[in-house]
């Protein structure tokens, strides 16, 4: 592979993209391109920029271009489980966003643009499982935030402006080297992480992942509770197996 070039990934055509538009339970149109092996943001989806929800999670994206600003109707954007180390400044133009999932990427503190604070309608922001060492105090301007995920980073301090957000109901800072949790006795984690697999608690999952996992779990429970039907194997009760009479006629068996 040439130096400086990552995997090419799967090429998404406009036809494939159009066939990937779904109507979500809330009536919004969702362009679902998750788990498609995409390594480069597909420019063809600009023709579908009027969708309200965009799912590009579980791909190999290393960069989100500034043309994301074309998606002005977006209220829901899922980019979790990619290879992103920074966000474009244009992210701040998506003023209608209420949900932004950036979990399980390679985002650094320097990779968070100041324009992120322009998302004044944001209710849920997930920055868990990244490479953050600090959190900008300016995130305290996102006064509509209800949930903020910061788990599994390298944070040693949570700004007061973030802790005191007026509508914040859930702040997940688990598994960070925060001094206030240093004296707590936490169980030793004997599970080793590998590059692309993470074991997280149920409460750390995003809503879409949790819904999918619960659905699969329910299907397994259905299979477990099914009563086995009658066996289709033929039965021959009148036949005698050789071993049942071998002790009585061993000599005869040997001769034959």
Automatic annotation (TrEMBL):
Annotated segments matching region Disordered: 223-256
Q: What is this protein called?
A: LRC18 protein
Q: Which domain of life is it from?
A: Eukaryota
The annotated regions of Polar residues compositional bias extend over 228-248
The protein's UniProt keywords, in alphabetical order, are: Leucine-rich repeat, Repeat
| One cellular-component annotation, GO | cytoplasm
Give the Pfam families listed for this entry: LRR_1
- Transmembrane segments annotated in the record for this chain: none
